[in-house]
Amino acid sequence: MIRREEPGSIWVIHQAAHAYTAGQIAEHWVGNGNMAVRPREELVLAAYAHDSGWAAHEQQPRINGHGKPRTFTEMGLEEHFTIWRDSIGAVFAQNRYASLLTSMHCSALYEQRLQYLADPPEDQAKIRAFLEQQHTWEKNLITALNDHPLYSVAIQPGYLSDNLRLLQVWDYLSLLVCMSPVHEQVLEDVPIHNGQRDVLYVSSSGPRSMALEPYPLDQPLTLWVDARQVIGCPFDNDDEFRRALDGVPYKPLVFEIGPL
């Protein structure tokens, strides 16, 4: 679940709704105008479906230590591991290459966590054990796809690295617009030209809008996300939050992405 805080209001957005916006970004990605994304359908599927394991988990939403709706960044490791495994498994049932990208996306996030966050030693050990399992699974899947008529080229290191990076960028841009007003920043190593990466500049163009330069999409996008507005925050416990959320209607949030 994603918590979007605005002046005087808190919205909760399903992870699958965020993934839906990532998928729309993926569908319209053309890089510098003639970039070939291959295999496009599988990459778009990974963008749309990489958070598929969240649906069951979000049936029992919880609060954080401050009484606010808990987000995906405020969860325990074991819970997170389970959701990632469920997500990878759900994508695998649709397409093996898309599931490979989903798993590699998950692995990269945990590798970054080990590098930049000072987790307790016992948590670091859990992450390393989880990563070892995922890396083994990924290597076995790459071997299984080695003679595939469509994916044998797409699993080569250069292709796989670019495709993973595309999924990471699509996921991150979607999170930016869903989570909070966008702040100016720079994304490096973004595949914008065939076989070449570039810098992508991100800035705000409004409270629910984002501008990109160079503009990598084939048109300005208007993204609709159905979300629920939370009333009564902070909450004393999970049950109070669930009762407050029960029956709250979904309302459309509109996000805009356009050129700088």
Short description:
By secondary structure, the protein is an alpha+beta fold. It has helices at 15-27, 40-49, 54-57, 77-92, 96-116, 121-144, 157-179, 238-245, and strands spanning 2-6, 9-13, 185-193, 196-206, 209-213, 221-230, 251-259. A hairpin with a 2-residue loop joins strand 3 and strand 4 (196-206).
Mean pLDDT: 95
Helical percentage:
40-55%
What's the overall geometry? globular
Point out poorly predicted stretches.
none
Structure description:
The protein has 260 residues and is α+β, with helices and mostly antiparallel strands. The chain has one domain (2-259). The chain contains 8 helices and 7 strands. Strands 1-2-6-7-5-4-3 form a 7-stranded mixed beta sheet. The longest helix has 24 residues, at 121-144. The mean pLDDT is 95.
From the structure above, extract its key features.
21% strand, 260 residues, alpha+beta, globular, 46% helix, seven-stranded mixed beta sheet
